[in-house]
Amino acid sequence: MSNKIVFSRLYALIRPYKYQFMLSMFAALVVAGLSGAQAYMVKPLLDKIFVEKSTYFLSILPIALILLFAVKGFFYGLNFFLLEKIGQNVIREMRTKVFDHIHAQSLSFFHRTPTGELISRVISDINFMQAAISTAVVGLLRDFIQVICLLIVIFSMNWQLAMISLVFLPAAAIPIVKFGRAFRRISTKMQEETAVVSNIMHESITGAPVVKAFTMEEHESKRFAAQVEKLFQTIMEDARYRRIQHPLMEVIGGFGMALIIWFGGKEVIAGNSTPGTFFAFLTALVMIYQPIKAVSKINSTVQRGLAAAVRVFSLLDQPADITSKPNAPELPPFHNSISLQNLQFSYDKQTKVLKDINLEVPAGEILAIVGPSGSGKSTLANLIPRFFDIDAGNLLIDGHDIRDVTLRSLRKQIAIVTQQTILFNDSIRNNIAYGDSERAEEEIRAAAKAAHALGFIEKLPEGFDTVIGESGNKLSGGERQRISIARALLKNAPILVLDEATSALDTESEREVQIALENLMKNRTTFVIAHRLSTIKNADRIIVIKDGRIVEEGTHDMLLAAGLEYEKLYNMQYQN
Ligand SMILES: Nc1ncnc2c1ncn2[C@@H]1O[C@H](COP(=O)(O)OP(=O)(O)O)[C@@H](O)[C@H]1O
Ligand SMILES: [Mg+2]
Question: Which listed ligand is nearest to 345 at the C-alpha?
Answer without folding.
Answer: 1
